[in-house]
Amino acid sequence: TVHRHLSTTSQVNKIEKLTVFGAGLMGAGIAQVGAQSGLKVILSDVTDKALENGLNIISKSLSRVAKKKSPDDIEGFTSNILKNIETTTDAAKAVQDSDLVIEAIIESIKVKRDLFGFLDEKAKAECIFASNTSSLSVKEIAESCSNDRQARFAGLHFFNPVPAMKLVEIIKTPQTSTETFEALKEVTLRMNKSPVSCNDTPGFIVNRLLVPYLLEAIRMVERGDATPEDIDTAMELGAGYPMGPFKLLDFVGLDTTSYIAQGWREKAQSGEISKELVEPIGLLDKLVKEGKLGRKSGQGFYEYDNKK
Ligand code: NAI
């Protein structure tokens, strides 16, 4: 099993208490897998309504898991895991006793830095801080904290939907300590995920390779080289991908992809990523402007019947 690869050389306090900030799509998923792995979880957000939304996402997802794992006692299975999750809007209280904080709030460098700067004063010295950001620099977020905390700071990038996707990218900044990395690896394995390690670079591993590929697929359509349908069929049957690029673009959201490309264009100015990879695309901008964002809006490259 994967546990074989775990280093046993470094001493780390075992993580028992997890605090998740942000009860949206990702935060709810992270709280759920944490609770399923036996951690004591506190889920925190700015409003009671957001917390309620998070608990709803978790309950629905847990019932789906229960249908497979414990079909005779769906209620019991679900409530047994839900009892590991507490909620609060009080950020200071949420971290006072925590071993690990995972932040999954809105993708804004300022809001994330404000939150971590505040939490740095409130959490135990040993508490590890992690951000689920997909497009921001982890180092820049970490710099809102003291030097000691920066050694206990890393990126922990989960994938949507969290309960189903096995991968977690652990992002090390130059300040992240080996002990912190090992503790995060251990806790993600306990969550039944497969961790990989990457430096703090644009897109980390998955998006760094995936986004340029998706953008080039759009350019092919824009040039009239092939249709979205044929490109999807080609990549599914010829490259063995489970989903062609246009199905994936519609699933992720065209606005999200466009937003990531925009951020990278800024990084291309300083040479962190090559300019050609993220050249603006008229067709993508046009679809986003028209509100054709993919599955969630009912239309992207394909049409969807969201009433079903
Ligand atoms: P979301 O919009 O579903 O949820 C964000 C939640 O954060 C909301 O409930 C909001 O009320 C809350 N929030 C905002 N400011 C807060 C604060 N100061 N303190 C506590 N809670 C606060 O967003 P989503 O999609 O869950 O994304 C969260 C993070 O995860 C972002 O950084 C995003 O880039 C990243 N991410 C998203 C993925 C996706 O597929 N949606 C995949 C991987 C990472």
From TrEMBL:
GO molecular-function terms, A-Z: (3S)-3-hydroxyacyl-CoA dehydrogenase (NAD+) activity; NAD+ binding
GO CC aspect terms: mitochondrial matrix
Domain 3-hydroxyacyl-CoA dehydrogenase C-terminal, first and last residues per copy: 203-304
Superkingdom as given in the UniProt entry: Eukaryota
Domain 3-hydroxyacyl-CoA dehydrogenase NAD binding residues, every copy: 17-201
One GO BP annotation of this record: fatty acid beta-oxidation
Enzyme class, broadest EC rank: oxidoreductase
The protein, known as: 3-hydroxyacyl-CoA dehydrogenase
